[in-house]
Design a protein that fits this description.
This protein has 281 residues and is of the alpha+beta class. The chain has 8 helices and 11 strands. A hairpin with a 2-residue loop joins β10 and β11. α5 crosses α8 and α7 packs across α8. It binds a DNA duplex (16 and 16 nucleotides) through α7.
DNA sequence: CTACGGACCTGACCGC
DNA sequence: TGCGGTCAGGTCCGTA
């Protein structure tokens, strides 16, 4: 569900609510199956024990991961929202929504809660090295596509380094961190490139167009507080507005915004894919 | 290295 | 109302 812009929005919202706050108590769902799925590292019981009493230093983002460095020893609380995860701060007396699996009472008197109907998300606690060693966090995560971290030369290099359909590359988090199904399709459309095009066959001009398009779609979406398609909401429970600006995603069969040709829906890299047969070559 | 399919879950939606 | 099938912003694993 959440890609880079949605996670970035949540990070920005949570930062003032969480930075400097101490975690007074921690509650995890009692269902052992859900616990095991949700808490990937360390074991659930250890996770609870080690998290209690810790102070959240800051709230950051790496790709689609929320990263919260804790006081001392380089440990961090890491959250991936999967498809349907929500992380937000509630008044303790508010009734928890269905599928609330994790709650942490803060010294501000408010409560940080995680809910996730599909249970694809996860919670991790440890140093960067421990999480990688425990295979809970990817050892190779690609560069951040925005905020000037990725140069055009570097993008060029990684696109040319492997041969695969460009959309498969964009979705691969070890290639580029944070792009998912929505923004991969949107970026390809803006760049005029078919998602099925082979990476090593893109021209220099096409690579440059794609580089700009990726940054454009991500930055525009952050400015609109993310795309709410099915159930994404920000850290205040509010929908973003970028879905209104999506040019191809979710518009299969509808007319192309540029040329009017019905948009083509297909399957690529195992994911629903939409593009314009005429505008994207 | 790559690609493909399936697995992991719930829930919304559609046609019958 | 109900039932089955399909689909969904994501990853991960096994198999070719």
């Amino acid at each position: 569900m959440p890609e880079l812009p949605e996670v970035e929005t949540i990070v920005q919202d949570l930062r003032p609510q969480l930075a400097g706050r101490r975690i007074e108590s921690v509650q995890l769902t009692r269902d052992p199956a859900i616990r095991g799925r949700l808490v990937r590292y360390p074991k659930a019981a250890t996770f609870i024990r080690r998290l209690r009493g810790r102070t959240i230093r800051s709230v950051e983002r790496r790709g689609k991961y929320l990263v919260m460095p804790l006081d001392k020893d380089g440990e961090r609380l890491v959250v991936h929202l999967g498809m349907t995860g929500h992380l937000r701060v509630w008044e303790p007396e508010e009734a928890p929504v269905k599928h609330t699996h994790f709650r942490a009472l803060l010294d501000s008197g408010l409560e940080l809660r995680y809910d996730d109907p599909r249970q694809f998300g996860r919670l991790l606690l440890g140093t960067q090295e421990a999480l990688i060693a425990g295979r809970a966090f990817p050892a190779r995560l690609g560069p951040e596509p925005i905020h000037g971290d990725l140069t055009e030369a570097e993008f060029d290099r990684i696109v040319k380094s492997r041969r695969r359909p460009i959309k498969a590359a964009l979705l691969d988090q070890s290639f580029l961190a944070g792009v998912g199904n929505i923004y991969a399709d949107e970026a390809c459309f803006r760049a005029g490139i078919r998602p099925s095009r082979w990476t090593h066959r893109l021209t220099g001009r096409e690579r440059r167009a794609l580089y700009s398009a990726i940054q454009e779609v991500l930055e525009n979406s952050i400015a609109a507080r993310g795309s709410s398609i099915i159930n994404y909401v920000d850290a205040f429970g509010l929908r973003g507005t970028n879905q209104e600006k999506l040019l191809v995603y979710g518009r299969s069969g509808e007319p192309c915004i540029k040329c009017g040709t019905p948009l083509q829906g297909t399957r690529l890299a195992g994911r629903g894919t939409v593009y314009c047969r005429k505008c994207q070559r």
